[in-house]
Model the fold of this input.
Amino acid sequence: MKNILYITLFVFSFAAATATQAQEKIYTPAPENLKARQEFADSKLGIFIHWGIYSTFAQGEWYMQNAKIDKNEYAKVADAFYPHRFDAKAWVTAIKEAGARYICFTSRHHDSFSMWDTAESDYNIVDATPFGRDVIKELADECHRQGVKLHLYYSHLDWKRDEYPMGSTGKQVIGRDTTKTDWPAYYDFMNRQLTELLTNYGEIGAIWFDGWWDHEDDSIPFNWQLDEQYALIHSLQPQCLVGNNHHQVPFEGEDIQIFERDLPGENKAGYSGQDVSRLPLETCQTMNGMWGYKLVDQNYKSSKTLIQYLVSAAGKGANLLLNVGPQPNGEIPAAALQRLKEIGEWTRTYGESIYSTTAGDIPAQPWGVTTRKGNRLFVHIMNLDSKELALPLTCKVKRAVAFADKTPVKFKKTKNGIKLLFDKAPTGVDYIVELTTK
Ligand code: GLC
Done:
């Protein structure tokens, strides 16, 4: 009996100790962080910029690995990187006019090249290129001037540095010396670089990690030591959001959930399928097929498709992080600029129906989506071949108008909601009916 008592006591105290330890590890976002999360969720559109020395090859950002290049030969292109048309003001202006509220810029991609004046490696835009300008500094200053938030993409994986433990990618790259693997050194290097980014460039809206999946298939689980790294970011800038493109449900310490090429809950591209969390959501998507500039990839999605994607994301309560891949000369391709302009025309007129909204009462349907702001429910009809639309709703509808000109839209009550009645089937990119609900 006494033994059982001791065992029970031991089990309880062990459980209590474990619970305390677990509790200690629980991340509590700072008030500034919670505010930033709300601003992020309200902003709905961001522009992703993939730009680095890889742009010079015009083959996308995976060229080094896909073409099995010698890392030292690849590095020579830095000496030819002279983007004489780079103009931070022109980029930020075009992006802001599209209606985007933030930019996510690739500070260092898988090829290891740093796009800022880092003291941690000479392989950077200031020391290794004839251009010699700190583009992150210029972008940060311009973003701050224009009130656009700057997020920074940062690759966890590295195809050039020998200290980085070889993962499932990067094996094709020639010249890596795996005998020099040194995770502690690499981890310190990353943290010192992150410290620079979060110290020298003013307020940073988010750090957007990528590459976790490089060690997903390791036989011994790889320890990325994310807890400490996330804590470092939050200690340097508490409002800075941490996101990780690991294609998993968010880990402890993350502030947003990222989806790649798919809306939350969908998995057409094959990177998703994970549960949708309660954190602010973001889906990143390409305008053509590749992230980094690729000469042969002129298969741009139409502005209509992109606007509908933005609206569909909002209908799921998510932001769209839409990518552009600037050219080696520093310009955003004309096809991308044209789309940004057309998206801007749409957001200027209809943005009110998506900014600062949450996912609406009715989940995504083949005909479209809904978004909600207070007592206004926006019905976004993007694909309807009928003069009627039944809306299952539990709330009472007081008024229905066409968002564009506020003319009344006829509706009748049904058993479980209302039915909208049109003179002809709605057409256009997004026919919005605004309901006032009680
Ligand atoms: C993938 C790719 C990477 C790209 C990212 C953007 O992780 O590896 O090249 O930057 O997607 O979402």
User: Anything to note?
Assistant: Residues 2-25 form the longest helix (24 residues).
